[in-house]
């Protein structure tokens, strides 16, 4: 699947931009230039789905697994294309440079997007490219547009909506009533898609392939569940019968209770996994390859009866992994999927991954906790068909880990493996070298580790309710020296 290469993990929200959050505008194109000039072949991002402040602005938990986050639409490009005046772009309020203030960004950008919509509302429906977009994406966009219009008007959970809406038995009148609001949501998705396709084309032209990310489960409060209740394990009154999570382990004595509804795989099988095929196909139009989050959940998943306070009283339930991935391979012969196989992985999960030739993940921050030369995350144990990361969006940075999370014994194992003692100023570089020098086909460095940042650069701390997904890259951090250092490293280890 891969040529030997390297890449950088940086989400769109973290890109430089004067508008409080990263977007698909000039800062994104400059970052692509940086990737190309530093010898990188891959850019990995987090999910592009809309975020919700009530769900912590997580890109893994939003109102749709298919839709795009309108906050990522570039205002500069809107002005260039004549949707908004140039002065609007220049008159932005001050934003805190190193962090995303989501509340402030929403208050600033959404009225401008609405202004763009109102300015072309009378003509947009006659736009051939807009009509093509609606037709090609009707399988998810029609439900999403109506769901968001209802959500903004009716508020609250969709379970509290009138019966004809909740049960989808009488939607035509609501569609007509909210026609303008639905059109607005569709227009935002169109703007994003057009800007994204241009950016992806620029990446591919520069020799950069984009790795996307697919959460396994939707939020219950999503268009996905509202529009497709039969493919989830729900009760007769449409509430979750079971929710997802993971069982108790070394890191959590009560397990993790995620709360997402779980799939009814028997029902998915009845129509040949149509919903999943549409979803994978949709993502492969956006990305060159996709990372499947929580891959072990496609082999067996932990379901917990709804209403539990912890994940302790759940059970493992098998999923039809071989049949499912065989079906996917018929639709997508190259199956450009990366398996997120971190954590405690049982032999059956490894067998499925290997049977379909899917590359898995290795994380260096997890490699030195035990004095075990056979640890699967130590580089000398890697197979070629994998991706190695210094850390992920859920871990600390290398420097933050070294400072705060390693004890004397773990540090000594690291020093012994590197072959010398290292200090705080160089540990991120040495970990990058371990990743680059390994046999893994692909080495991915979070941008925070490229820069050698400490805990202040952490993207997400699982379990923390506030302060996640806020880190941003300062444009001044991307220097000529940084490009040259990265290029020399990838060249040295045959990844250029």
Q: What do these coordinates show?
A:
This protein has 19 helices and 12 strands. The radius of gyration is 23 Å and the shape is globular. Strand 1, helix 1 (26-37) and strand 2 form a beta-alpha-beta unit. The strands form 2 sheets. The protein has an 8-stranded parallel β-sheet. By secondary structure, the chain is of the alpha/beta class. The two termini are 17 Å apart. The mean pLDDT is 96. It has one domain: TIM Barrel (Alpha-Beta Barrel).
Q: How many structural domains?
A: 1
How would a crystallographer describe the biggest sheet? Answer: 8 strands, parallel
Strands, count: 12
- Regarding CATH, which class? Alpha Beta
Distance between the termini: 17 Å
* Architecture (CATH level 2) name: Alpha-Beta Barrel
- What share of residues are in beta strands? 5-15%
Quick check: average pLDDT?
96
**Order of strands across the widest beta sheet?**
9-6-3-2-1-12-11-10
Could you say which overall geometry the principal axes of the C-alpha atoms support?
globular
SS content category: alpha/beta
Q: Output the number of helix runs.
A: 19
Radius of gyration: 23 Å
Helix content: 40-55%
Q: Spans of 5+ residues with little confidence (pLDDT < 50)?
A: none
The oligomeric state of the chains shown is: single chain
- Look up the CATH topology: TIM Barrel
Per CATH, the superfamily is Glycosidases
């Amino acid at each position: 699947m891969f040529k030997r290469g390297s890449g950088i993990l940086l989400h769109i929200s973290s890109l430089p931009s004067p508008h409080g959050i990263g977007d698909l505008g000039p800062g994104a194109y400059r970052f692509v230039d940086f990737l190309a000039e530093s010898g990188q072949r891959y850019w990995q991002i987090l999910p592009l789905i809309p975020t919700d402040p009530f769900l912590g602005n997580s890109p893994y938990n939003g109102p749709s697994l298919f839709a795009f986050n309108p906050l990522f639409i570039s205002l500069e490009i809107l002005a260039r294309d004549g949707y908004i005046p140039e002065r609007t772009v220049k008159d932005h309020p001050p934003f805190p440079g190193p962090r995303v203030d989501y509340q402030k960004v929403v208050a600033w950008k959404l009225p401008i997007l609405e202004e763009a919509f109102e300015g072309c509302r009378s003509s947009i429906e006659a736009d051939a490219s807009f009509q093509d977009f609606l037709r090609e994406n009707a399988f998810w966009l029609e439900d999403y547009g109506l769901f968001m219009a209802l959500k903004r008007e009716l508020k609250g959970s969709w379970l509290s909506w009138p019966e004809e809406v909740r049960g989808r038995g009488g939607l035509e009148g609501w569609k007509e009533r909210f026609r303008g609001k639905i059109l607005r949501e569709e227009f935002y998705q169109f703007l994003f898609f057009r800007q994204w396709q241009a950016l992806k084309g620029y990446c591919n032209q520069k020799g950069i392939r984009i790795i996307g990310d697919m959460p396994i489960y939707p939020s219950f409060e999503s268009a996905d569940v509202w529009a497709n209740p039969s493919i989830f394990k729900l009760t007769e009154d449409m509430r979750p019968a079971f929710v997802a999570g993971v069982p108790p382990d070394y890191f959590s004595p009560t397990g993790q209770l995620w709360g997402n509804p779980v799939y009814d795989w028997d029902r998915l099988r009845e129509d040949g996994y149509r919903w999943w095929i549409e979803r994978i196909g949709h993502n492969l139009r956006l990305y060159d390859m996709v990372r499947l989050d929580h891959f072990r959940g496609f082999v067996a998943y932990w379901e917990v009866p709804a209403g539990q306070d912890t994940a302790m009283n759940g059970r493992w339930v098998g999923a039809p992994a071989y049949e499912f991935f065989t079906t996917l391979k018929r639709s997508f012969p190259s199956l450009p999927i990366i398996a997120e196989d971190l954590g405690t992985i049982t032999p059956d999960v490894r067998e499925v991954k290997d049977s379909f030739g899917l590359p898995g993940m290795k994380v260096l921050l997890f490699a030195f906790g035990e004095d075990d030369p056979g640890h699967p995350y130590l580089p000398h144990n890697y197979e070629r068909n994998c991706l190695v990361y210094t850390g992920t969006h859920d871990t600390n940075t290398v420097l933050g880990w070294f400072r705060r999370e390693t004890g004397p014994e773990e540090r000594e194992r690291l020093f012994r493996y590197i072959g010398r003692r290292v200090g705080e100023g160089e540990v991120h570089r040495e970990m990058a070298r371990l990743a680059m020098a390994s046999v893994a086909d692909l080495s991915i460095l979070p941008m925070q580790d490229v820069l050698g940042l400490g805990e202040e650069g952490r993207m997400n701390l699982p379990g923390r309710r506030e302060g996640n997904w806020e880190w941003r890259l300062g444009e001044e951090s991307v220097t000529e020296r940084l490009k040259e250092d990265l290029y020399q490293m990838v060249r040295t280890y045959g990844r250029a």
